[in-house]
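Problem: given the chain below (94 residues), write out its structure.
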Amino acid sequence: MRNYEVVLILHPELDETAFNAAVDKVKGWITTSGGSVSKVDVWGKRRMAYSIRKQREGQYVLITAEFAPTFCTDLERNLRFLEPVMRFMITVVE
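Solution.
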């Protein structure tokens, strides 16, 4: 098991229930794979440096978690198909 930081940029026009549902879905993927989520930090809506999908803002979320390195590719695939996620980044924390 390794420690990871998962940063998500979600669509800015999501209401609170849709936003929480998307974050809970990602947390659920991590926990069902045998990992654990230690912290979820919502940064809120911020202006981006460039537009993504014709949006200039996004809702940022930082998830600090621990899961197996083999699950990283599955998580990336799942995040690509999750509609509210505009961008994501998964990094290893040493």
